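@here heads up, posting the sequence + SMILES for the zinc ion run so it's all in one place. Ping me if the SMILES looks off, I pulled it from an old spreadsheet.
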Amino acid sequence: MFRLLILTTVLVFCNAALSAQTNLFVPRNYLKSYENGTRSWDGKPGEKYWQNKAKYVIAARLEPKTRLLSGEESVTYFNNSPDTLKFIRIKLQHNRYQKGAARAFEVSASDVSDKGVSLQYVAWNGQKVEQKNLRPAQTFLDIALNDKPLAPGSNAVLVVKWAYTLPAGADAARECVCDSSTFFVPYWYPQIAVYDDLNGWASHPYTGLQEFYNDFNDYDVSITLPKGFQAWGSGEWQNPDELLTPTYLDRWKKAQTSSEVLSIFSEKELLNGGVYKKNKANTFHFKAVDIPDFAFAASDHNNWDATSVVVDDKTGRRTFVSAVYNTASTDYPQVARIAADGIRLMSTWLPGYPFPYPCMTVFNGNDGMEYPMMCNDVSTAPGSPMTLTIHEVSHTYFPFMMGINEQDYAWMDEGWAAFFDYKLSDSLSNHTLGRVRPYAEIAGTDNDVPPMVKSRNLSTAYRNASYQRPQNAYFTLLDLLGYEKFHSCMTTYMDRWKGKHPEPFDFFQTWNQASGENLDWFWKPWFFEWGYPDLAVQNVIFDEAAHCQVILIDKKGNIPVPIHLEVSYTDGSKEIFHYTAVVWKSGQQNFKVPCPAGKKIKSIELGSTTIPDVNLTDNKWGA
Ligand SMILES: [Zn+2]
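bot reply: prediction finished. Complex structure tokens:
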């Protein structure tokens, strides 16, 4: 009895010490990372934070006629974890097309195959892996290491030879056989899954819905294509001098420092020949360090525009920006300019952090999808390509520079991309473009799931939890903190977690600390609770003591939003009143807005386009 009492007391004390660090609910399994010192309560990476890394050397070949992609890779994998790894988990994401695989979206029957990725050879540390030690499961393949596990602090080399046929059906989302000789190729090489301090090996297969969670790796990639084809990839092109004739090499070099958009080649020039020195197959060589994935594109008949933009005023560093497109895509001649102007704003305003990559290519594919240094963007003609371009390019920050686990918390990246695409497009277009995601329509329904529910567990509720609700939360946060404080929090967050894997509490705690305010009252309703935003004009009364009219605002919903009022007076004048969501910080349900003495209110309109409100009928007062 006594012993039990001591034990209970110790446990209660420990728990209290941990939970005292936040008012937010922290899942029990996350508490371990604080106990282990891999994360810390102030939101910084813990003293014992670690993550694993791989260095990929890949040689691949694409045969456009058969769509056969084949490759061989040598991957050096570094186990920086304190754990002995008894197996290595490989991602074979194309196996989403295998018969019987779990898929979030239908795919064309012609793309479904029995075998998926064909593995011709797998070796671990110089020894061929026997078939019995290869354990496939959905889009994963586990390699059992048996009596030779990978010890902490050691590394080993994986060699894989593989091939598969690129899916060509119209339902092939995010990847593209755009026409018979134009390709956008992601999810294409065997990739070592993430092993992290929170969950060990990543366990969610790729179904086509939830997106990235990758370690920061180095890539040395060579892609061989038939004569007349150009490749673009997630990295700096290493051998233009070897491949291009002087005219086109000169254009490519000029564009590296040009602020104007130049043509590297037109579709006609590429088709006419003369771009390449050799009239035979070419091998395109790319390199990149510390990036979370590698995608490439290839075509023998696209236009290539390019420019560059200064992304760091302190050093003068520039990013080389390309748009590659079919002549029929009439919106695409604007894309290189938009991407460069967007990257400049990203570097200097929102998020206000120098763009981390040396290059960025927006490729005319079939979707709106980001990869490091590459976007697969469909033509939006006759509409504007601005919002789509900005959205996908801005993903460079989240999830690529900040290694977000999107399979668990997509709001940590899609919400930001939706926030940036609105703010930047709105600014670049003189307020004519920019898309507010319609959160109010769905808020408070059973499809409005709190974003802290893991993305991997969502299907119909995925989009709202990942885009709409967090975009609107971040609007409210910017309004609440003001630009200076918001930017300072963002910079602190990025400095701390750049090239690492932040989880939600790292984000919440860092912003609490950097802002100097405990924002748990804000995080809790927006990210943890069911509910909705709803403000109402309750009434207008005359305050005898203040000798003026007072507007009474009711907070009917639990989610805190700003009060934005346009008040018209009987003398014909108008006035805007704006209060950030901080007015609801202590749980108040009402707020009083005093108007100037001597004025009489004619009518009131409450709300704005960036303030969600589920019921607008109670937002008006008067004539
Ligand atoms: Zn996105």
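MO: The CA atoms of residues 51 and 294 lie 19 Å apart.
MO: One more: The pocket of zinc ion is lined by residues 391, 395, 414, 417 (CB under 6 Å).
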